[in-house]
Amino acid sequence: MALTLQPHLRFDDLFERLGNPTLNSVLARQPVIIPSLPFGAQLQRALSQKYGVCMGLSLQTARTFIHAAVGPGENSQWLKEQMQWLILPLVQKYQHHLGVNSPLAIRDRFALAGVLADKLNNYGHHRPEWVVEWYGAQAADAPSGWQVDLWQELRQAVGPDEPHPALQMHLNRSNAEFLHSLRNRFPRVIALATGSLDPLLVQVLRLLDSAGSDVQVHVLLPTLGYLGEIARDPLLLPAIDSEPEELEIAGGHPLLTSMGRNAIGTFALLEQLDPNYAHWPDPDEAQPTQRNPEPITLLKSLQQDIRIMRFEDKGQSKSADDSISVHSCFGPQRELEAIQDALFKAFADIPDLKPSDVHLVTPDLETYAPLARALFLSGSSPLPIQFTERPVLDELPLTQGLMTLLDCVITSRLQASDISFLLFNPAVLAHLETEDSELLRNWLEASGFTHGAGTSSPGRLGYARDRLISGYWLANDSDARYPDQTWVLPEADELGGNLPLLSDFCAWLSAIESTYLAWQTHCPATNWAQRIRTACLNFLPAMAINCWN
Predict the structure, then answer these.
(1) Helix, strand or coil for residue 294?
(2) Could you tell me what percent of the chain has a pLDDT over 70?
(3) Which of helix, strand or coil describes residue 233?
(4) How far, in Å, CA of 200 to CA of 197, rounded?
């Protein structure tokens, strides 16, 4: 089947041309390659709103799909996170090439291993031809000898049974059995891209096309007008191996000079998929049409200037409005506070604006995610927030548990939903030596716990814990009541037969309560490390022992 390439000016156009990818005749889930997780979340939301359902899709980033198609899959040692651990023992040997000559602590070596893993990962995706050369006996054309040496040591650590996906693809281009398997595994693939495109993904899509798969590529490029001019005159197209920073863009809007470089690099890669640019619109057709005429704001005017390559002189001033605002803030926390104020104003001023219409983009999710949780979810008017991409630390069971408890402290509300969430945590279940998360959650529900600490009133955690204990010992007396005539535990008969687990569970609830209360009090920042260590050893020791030793 022929590969089809469709360029689009905006997300709405891409979405309309995409159709409904959930209508898939193949039983397997439809693979849809997305440029980022936030893009995938927006796509799922749009599909659900239009068709009422969004299912049967397998949304994968380019990296995930590449390793699934031509690599060992999600457990590949060539993934950046895995390479970091393999490089860690080699850091001291190569650190001087990065300007680091002094001895490093283990944490700093791990960080440097991450830098090296990121560099080699970029080579593998953006210069796959280098990877193929590096597997050869000689690497004369390599950009730097030490990087080749590091790659060869990494290759030996991975082992000969798991070649890099770039080499795997190179070796199987003419392998009929491999191509047949590829066609059976991926009979139809939809790839969505924005201003940048993974060169290794382009080669994988070409391989799928040669295998006979139905490949659709939809590219979102706001600079279609300028790229349309290049499509008319191929001599303007730069060489495929040109560096984006070296490209010269004549004329147009100054922002196009920086934004257009990546677009041109992507455009050059797309020539490998469709040499004739068969579906590329003429420059005049690429301009947006006004479906619903709206007032021309400063933002819309700037967007139009970029698209039609128009740059007005500084003397031509435009009326200012609040469609574009620039804030100079001191630190990430103040940035988020400014965004919070702007969001409150937007929800008050813009009719029908919904939280799902708002997208926050950050260059460092590890830094901003905890601050966003603390600011947006607290106060008298909390703002709902959903992370379309999880911070790396949040993927660890230990960190999940600590962050859940910290969220409780920040919001000053210890709720049943928080404790129930912790009972899904693998570290908690390992500590309690059970896999029956449902039983524990049933006990929590039967206890009557709703929110808060202490034993002062029904619904508090201490009060609920005492009900569990009393309910066990008075299980045969269904009419047992406290002096205030409240029932001890109506579901007491369900607690029989597992005293050791119930005892551990009650002790665990006590540890949660004491930690929550202790964290409510102020202490110097230097004492927080000990607080976290104590918390880990009290209610997450299954994971904490390895982390703290």
Answers:
(1) coil
(2) 70
(3) coil
(4) 9
Structure tokens at 325: 């605002």
Report pLDDT for 420: 77
List, for residues 281-334, the tens digit of each pLDDT value. 665 555 555 555 566 777 777 777 766 666 665 545 566 677 788 888 888 888
277 forms beta bridges with none
Match 């199987």 to its residue by tokens.
Answer: 172
* Ramachandran angles phi, psi of 6, nearest 5°: -125, 120
Residues 6+ apart with CB under 8 A from 527: none
Q: Tell me the per-residue pLDDT of 30-67, one tens digit each, with 9 for 90 and over.
A: 889 998 888 888 888 888 888 877 777 888 888 889 98
300-316 CB burial, b ≥16 within 10 A, e <16: ebeeebbbebeeeeeee
> Distance between CA atoms of 227 and 231, rounded to whole angstroms?
6
- Crossing angle for the helix pair 145-158 and 106-126, to the nearest 10 degrees: 100
Contact 398, 538 (CB under 8 A): no
Which of 272, 127, 126 has the alpha carbon at shortest distance from 210? 272
pLDDT of 131 reads 83
Rounded Cα distance between 226 and 256, Å, is: 9
- CA 427/CA 399 separation, integer angstroms: 10
Q: How confident is the model at residue 441 (pLDDT cuts 50, 70, 90)?
A: confident
pTM of the predicted model as reported, rounded to 2 decimal places: 0.61
d(CA 260, CA 249): 8
Backbone angles phi and psi of 58, in degrees to 5 = -120, 95
DSSP state of 484: T
What six digits make up the tokens of 371?
A: 């601050």
Cβ contacts of 468 within 8 Å, gap of 6 or more: 443, 446, 447, 489, 495, 502, 505, 506, 509
> What CA–CA distance (Å, rounded) separates 346 from 449?
38
Strand-pair partners of 64: none
Pairwise CA distance, residues 98 & 170, whole Å: 31
Task: For residue 29, give the DSSP letter.
Answer: P
The pLDDT of residue 411 is 60
